[in-house]
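seq/struct pair 1
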Amino acid sequence: MSQRNIETLEQFTIETIPNLDVAVLGALELFGKVSLPVFDFNHFKRPLVIGSLNAAVTGEILFDSHDAVFADESDFESKIQATPEIDGVVLISASGGKHAVRIAETLKKYPLETWLLTNNEDARAGHFIESEHIILFPKNREPYTYNTSTYLGMILSKTKEDPAQIYEFLTKEVHATIPQNLASFDSFYFIVPTQFHLASALFMTKFDELFGSKVSCRAFTFEQTEHAKTVVPSDKEFFISFGEENKVFGNDGTRFFVPLPEISGYAAMVAIGYYIIGYIQQQHPPYFKENIATYTKLASQLFNQPINSIVE
């Protein structure tokens, strides 16, 4: 793999923010040259896994075959109090800041072994967690909210997929097939394979972050889509199916099929989905670039801590 996208990520400014596809390729370039931490929480019989939004979904992916209880900043204490079987906690936060700080501090009240998965060696949440229980993952410099290298690295640590194979698939199999008329649509419908159903929430959240109300996304499995998701049709909604071709929903002019590599895990699914979103971003006005600086000023006030438009 080249390092071209990492170089772009290392050099961009607020005026030259790259689209999400660059962050995806840059993340895969990074994971092709660094080692990822190894973690094993099998000593927990029923852990509580806590995260906010993307981190929460990442937690569900990491513990999808574990008898875990999942929570976010709003309900983690009630989950502890309602579930006496909980015997440990895994807190997931790329920054280790924002709500993770309050969560980590609150967890000190409970006699539970607590771990932090983060990408920030100076994570404020880490002040309340034993240092040997903090697992630090590598990351790239990225725009705020992209969180591509951060959570993708955690997922790869579990799935053990080959980042070079995913990179090659994106650049050689997917890139040339992406439609050039995506700007004609203000709504997208992602149909994901059942085995990767958790990725749906990541895709919808990414649309919220990049487009707000300007461009929307719905994401479901084929089976979920069969349940009255398309009662009201729209010629402005574009259907993108992954792994299985969609010949039912939408019409020939509003369908795009994206194959998946023969051996795929959640890392490939997320990377490919984000890569496609990057091209949707590229073909629409630069909503994110035009507004992220204003937003991070507001976010800094909301969280009472500095939130930068570029996460170093």
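seq/struct pair 2
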Amino acid sequence: MMRRMELCVVIGLLAAAIPAQAQQDDNKKQRPDANAAAAQAAPKKPATDDPNYVIGPQDVLDISVWKEPELTRAVPVRPDGKISMPLLNDVQAAGRTPLQLAADITTGLKKFVTDPQVTVIVTTINSQRVFILGEVNRAGAYPLLPNMTVLQALSSAGGFTIYANLKKIYILRTEDGKQVKHPFNYKDVLAGKAPDQNAKPGDTIVVP
């Protein structure tokens, strides 16, 4: 009689444990989906807040179409200046501001979607760069952020070597199809004796 009662208790405990385990398994299955949805819903951080920023090749864009998740995606701008969008195929992005591109996509989607609401955010800037050469710790190409000055661009290179001539720095800039050399006295700018200037796309800053 005791053995039968013990067996009934064990069976009862097992029966209670199975649904609980099943619930845990269900939760584990649902959790990745929930995390993915939360990640998708998280707002993207723009690389620039300048509404007049002009998109260029190799920039990365986050395109969001409200209530149309299959059309919402991150896309790189191809070297030919275009992006690939569902329903629209190739769309010209380079040379357009985010607002202009959003308007273009909205117009194209009206043939397929009722009242599309499109947002375009530049999440990575790769199209505009400056080149820093010479006596710096990390020579190379660096992203040119909106309103970045020459002084700020130089700080990206990790400082100067002990051989750097800070009074003889110069900028090579293409103007009207010709390369022009602009002097930049780092010490005078740092001391406030000379004005800093904005770097421009394609600038080569040379530290002799």
